[in-house]
Recover the amino acids of this structure.
């Protein structure tokens, strides 16, 4: 029972993180906080990817001084790294957008920067 | 902004270590956890250390935006060129012809547990180096741009 | 030469990427060097795309295995019968999309050389332009789920950066931010679905996952997580809200390219519905067919009704883009709805799908042309407001002719290409549901009415004093528009040639799920 709960923990965390992220994206009015919600969502998906790669008794596939040869297939780790790299680029770009918007409008409140209607 | 002398001295002291550690992570990417992106990010942390401890005007004396942009473009070009080289060597794009062929990064690897030999894995360390250069340039450019946006609000 | 032809799928992505990263270096050598590089890169990319498409239409699906000793070795000897490498798999449907991207990107790059000549920061602009092209080409040629996500993100990020290119205007940055935010949330949803599929089937290759799919509850969640963001990115109602903002604030050349990029998302949607989930025995076709049909009919009608009252010419065209996307969804949706019924499929289902797919390529060409003409007018007059424009027909005859060609094509008037594909859709949809066919025709009439109004207020009337200095746009812009206009006329004059050579193979590729899987895994 405890083991099963422990195994489910990462997925529960993913669910909680996703809910928090959605809450931030939908209900926060501050652009920076919305972007933080987006980063949180990225982290949730990355955690999910790493969690599905877990195998009992498997070790990281690093041959240098490896104690055994039963290793996990590191595909999900590679996916996560790629997703992190993309996430860095996304965050950097959107934060720069937020900076420009702050310079133009003097605010990061999304209610006040809606020049585009619809 | 310009931080206190303690912060500045510590940052100066740590900057070369950051670079060397980043370089280590890049070069050993095919043997230990890490690789081009991670090592490049560590190296860019060194640049970030300098950036938080000093004024923008002092920083751009040593970390020029143009140099960093050049790093970014050159790293990416190296990556694609390495891919195309596989193509012209008779394999597919990114084909690892160098692995196990002797010469540069070409030592064959014994199967199973081994202490790890740096001079292995063929194309992969080259790609790691390319990505390392690119990420160092890219992340530093991002940091410099963001700081240049802040500099007007300085006292 | 033959060995180079073998590597076309890799070159298709490598050339634009190489050009994109070479541009900052070339920019140091001066504007002329950069322009030359941009033209060379665009020409080579298009050449590679068209050559690859010709190969696919002549000889069937082309595979390309990255990193392998030979580009065809999909399954390595020691891998236990599974493809472990990233594989590009271009079938006739992918080739059709490659043709669209190749032609549009060439025309758009030529156009931007003149249109953006007065802007600063051109190094970044062209780098991003080529990244966007590479992203679109990668999306439509990859056979790997995760690779699809990566290219989707590349095209989204490059697209968002380009939308915000005129960074001195707050609106542009706002449009870019909106696009980036929605794209990222959508892409994360796609990534989550990929994770769910990988956790169950230990594969990322589309063909391998398709062959192992068990259609459990988790797979259905994954389907929703994949289909909704892609439907959003192709601008279908009720998830169309980003299109008008983004299309309006982006530079016109970029808007035309974003149309192509949204159609790559449409390709992804079709690929997932037909290839990944397209098991004839276990999948409930009719439900998802009707889902596409309703999405399409709604998009077509809501799009055009929103378009009519618009005063901003690009905003108006953006709503028309939503409306036209509806036709594609309608056509392919009808095919999907009757897919399990072999008689109905042969009688009109395949025609409907051919109409939908033909409309994708036609729409990319005439809508791209229309956005470019709107950009040409903005280039000379500095306004997009229909109430302030007028009398430009005397000063800008070429732009007027190109606009007329595009407007007649979008309204479905013969002999332009819009008519050819809409006729296929009307005929076949009428046999599926007369009501939907009549709705589609009404939408066409409303489209015509809307564009007659635009034409009148932009080009007709006496020359206005405030536009006295307006001249025709520079030659590269005319050349870019001419490429698209030539295709619009050609596909309108000889539609059957296009349908036989490109569209029919694409329809067959779309419905041939077993063939797609067998190309990778071999046998049945």
């Amino acid at each position: 029972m405890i083991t099963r709960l422990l195994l489910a923990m990462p997925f529960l965390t993913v669910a909680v993180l996703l809910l928090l992220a959605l809450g931030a994206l939908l209900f926060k009015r501050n652009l920076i906080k919305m972007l933080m919600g987006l980063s949180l969502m990225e982290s949730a998906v990355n955690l999910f990817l790493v969690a599905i790669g877990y195998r009992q008794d498997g070790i990281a596939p690093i041959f240098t001084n490896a104690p055994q040869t039963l290793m996990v297939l590191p595909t999900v780790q590679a996916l996560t790294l790629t997703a992190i790299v993309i996430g860095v680029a996304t965050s950097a770009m959107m934060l720069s957008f937020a900076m420009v918007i702050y310079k133009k409008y003097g605010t990061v409140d999304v209610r006040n920067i809606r020049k585009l209607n619809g | 902004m310009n931080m206190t002398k303690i912060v500045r001295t510590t940052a100066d002291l740590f900057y070369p270590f950051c670079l060397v550690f980043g370089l280590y992570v890049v070069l050993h990417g095919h043997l230990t956890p890490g690789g081009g992106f991670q090592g490049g990010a560590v190296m860019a942390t060194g640049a970030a250390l300098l950036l938080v401890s000093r004024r923008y005007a002092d920083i751009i004396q040593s970390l020029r935006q143009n140099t960093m942009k050049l790093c970014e473009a050159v790293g990416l070009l190296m990556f694609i060129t390495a891919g195309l080289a596989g193509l012209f060597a008779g394999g597919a794009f990114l084909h690892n012809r160098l692995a196990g062929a002797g010469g540069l990064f070409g030592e064959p690897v014994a199967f199973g547990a081994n202490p790890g030999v740096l001079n292995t894995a063929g194309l992969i360390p080259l790609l790691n180096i390319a990505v390392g250069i690119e990420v160092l340039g890219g992340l530093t450019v991002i940091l410099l741009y963001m700081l240049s946006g802040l500099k007007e609000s300085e006292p | 030469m033959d060995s180079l032809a073998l590597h076309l799928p890799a070159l298709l992505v490598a050339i634009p990427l190489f050009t994109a990263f070479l541009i900052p270096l070339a920019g140091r050598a001066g504007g002329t060097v950069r322009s030359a590089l941009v033209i060379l890169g665009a020409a080579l990319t298009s050449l590679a795309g068209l050559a690859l498409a010709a190969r696919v239409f002549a000889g069937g699906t082309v595979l390309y295995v990255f990193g392998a000793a030979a580009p065809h070795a999909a399954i390595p000897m020691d891998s236990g019968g599974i493809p472990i490498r990233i594989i590009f798999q271009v079938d006739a449907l992918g080739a059709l999309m490659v043709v669209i991207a190749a032609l549009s990107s060439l025309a758009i790059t030529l156009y931007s050389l003149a249109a953006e000549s007065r802007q600063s920061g051109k190094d970044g602009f062209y780098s991003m332009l080529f990244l966007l092209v590479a992203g679109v080409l990668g999306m439509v040629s990859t056979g790997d789920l995760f690779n699809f996500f990566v290219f989707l993100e590349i095209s989204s990020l490059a697209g968002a950066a380009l939308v915000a290119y005129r960074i001195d205007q707050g609106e542009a940055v706002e449009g870019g931010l909106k696009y980036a935010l929605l794209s990222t949330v959508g892409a994360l949803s796609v990534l989550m679905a990929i994770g769910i599929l990988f956790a169950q089937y230990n594969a990322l290759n589309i063909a391998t996952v398709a062959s192992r799919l068990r259609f459990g509850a988790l797979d259905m969640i994954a389907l929703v997580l994949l289909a909704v963001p892609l439907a959003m990115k192709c601008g279908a109602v009720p998830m169309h809200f980003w299109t008008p903002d983004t299309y309006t604030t982006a530079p016109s050349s970029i808007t035309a390219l974003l149309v192509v990029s949204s159609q790559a998302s449409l390709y992804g949607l079709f690929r997932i519905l037909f290839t990944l989930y397209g098991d004839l025995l276990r999948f409930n076709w009719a439900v998802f067919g009707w889902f596409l049909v309703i999405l399409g009919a709604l998009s077509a009608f809501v799009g055009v009704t929103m378009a009519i009252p618009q005063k901003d010419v690009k905003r108006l065209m953006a709503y028309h883009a939503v409306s036209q996307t509806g036709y594609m969804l309608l056509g392919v949706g009808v095919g999907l709805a009757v897919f399990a019924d072999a008689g109905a499929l042969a009688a009109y289902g395949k025609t409907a799908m051919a109409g939908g797919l033909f409309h994708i390529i036609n729409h990319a060409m005439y809508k791209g042309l229309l956005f470019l003409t709107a950009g040409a007018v903005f280039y000379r007059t500095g306004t997009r407001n229909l109430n302030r424009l007028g009398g430009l027909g005397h000063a800008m005859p070429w732009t007027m002719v190109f606009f007329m060609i595009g407007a007649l094509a979008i309204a479905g008037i013969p002999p332009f290409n819009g008519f050819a594909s809409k006729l296929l859709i009307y005929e076949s949809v009428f046999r599926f549901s007369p009501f939907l066919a009549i709705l589609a025709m009404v939408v066409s009439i409303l489209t015509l009415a809307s564009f007659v109004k635009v034409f009148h207020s932009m080009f007709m009337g006496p020359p206005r004093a405030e536009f006295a200095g307006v001249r025709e746009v520079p030659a590269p812009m005319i050349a870019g528009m001419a490429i698209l206009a030539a295709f619009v006329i050609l596909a309108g004059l000889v539609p059957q040639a296009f349908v036989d050579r490109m569209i029919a193979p694409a329809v067959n590729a779309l419905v041939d799920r077993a063939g797609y899987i067998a190309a990778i895994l071999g046998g049945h």
In short: Chain B has five helices and no strands. Residues 5-148 of chain B form one domain. The CA atoms of residues 49 and 67 of chain B lie 18 Å apart. The interface with chain C takes residues 69-70, 72-74, 76-77, 80, 83-84, 86-87, 91-96 of chain B (CB under 8 Å).
